[in-house]
Specification:
By secondary structure, the chain is mostly helical. The protein is built from twelve helices and no strands. One of its GO terms (biological process) is response to antibiotic.
Length: 210
């Protein structure tokens, strides 16, 4: 390939194409060789921009996290509404890419821009009455909840398998309370179940404020 073609590459272009390939083949199918082929270059051209695949994956995670719309509460927005909105936005960002939760949960580092936005969020929470430690723990809990939830959503399982996992695998009588609970709630995954967990975190945090 010509040097001119390689010169057109950038970290942003490589990461964008990598996310496209990720959506097509998943994390296990993503390789530097496959990515180079999709970009029309030789593999060594990628290493001018990323030291190795791990660094590329970290950059992809950063792109996904930033797409969630990090930042402090909007003017007039309560911290409760902001935290819930943040959790929903983060979930949609992870769901926006195949294996998005795996990419983010295994990241080794994030960019200065992401860390700076995180610092803005913490500062806003402190200004609203949180201690620095409580602000950090609150956002961390939301992030961990959302990431774990999406990991389950993105697991390669047939529809309804989460509910089936709670039912007997033999001819024994089905557990009536479990079946009734699943029927009433609509299942252990999905939007309603996610909102319930988010509600518990947000309103549980209220009692911890000094």
């Amino acid at each position: 390939m010509s040097g001119g073609r390689n010169a057109e590459l950038s970290r942003e272009k490589i990461a964008a194409k990598a996310l496209e390939v990720l959506d097509e083949v998943g994390l296990d199918g993503l390789s530097m060789r496959r990515l180079a082929t999709e970009l029309g270059v030789q593999s060594p051209a990628l290493y001018w921009h990323f030291r190795d695949k791990r660094q590329l994956l970290d950059h992809m995670a950063d792109v996904i996290v930033l797409s969630a719309g990090m930042g402090p509460p909007r003017q007039g927005e309560s911290w409760q509404d902001w935290l819930a909105r943040r959790g929903r936005g983060y979930r949609m960002a992870l769901l926006g890419h195949r294996d998005g939760a795996r990419i983010v949960s295994t990241a080794h580092s994030l960019s200065r821009e992401t860390i700076a936005r995180f610092d803005q969020e913490l500062a806003a929470m402190v200004a609203l009455g949180f201690t620095p430690a409580l602000a950090l723990r609150t956002i961390t809990v939301v992030n961990q909840y959302v990431t774990g939830y999406v990991l389950q959503e993105q697991a390669a399982r047939p529809a309804g398998s989460a509910a089936k996992a709670l039912t007997p695998q033999s001819d024994e009588r089905a557990p009536a309370t479990v079946i009734a609970a699943i029927g009433e709630s609509g299942g252990v995954l999905g939007q309603d179940a996610f909102e319930h967990g988010l509600h518990v975190i947000v309103h549980g945090t209220e009692i911890l404020l000094p």
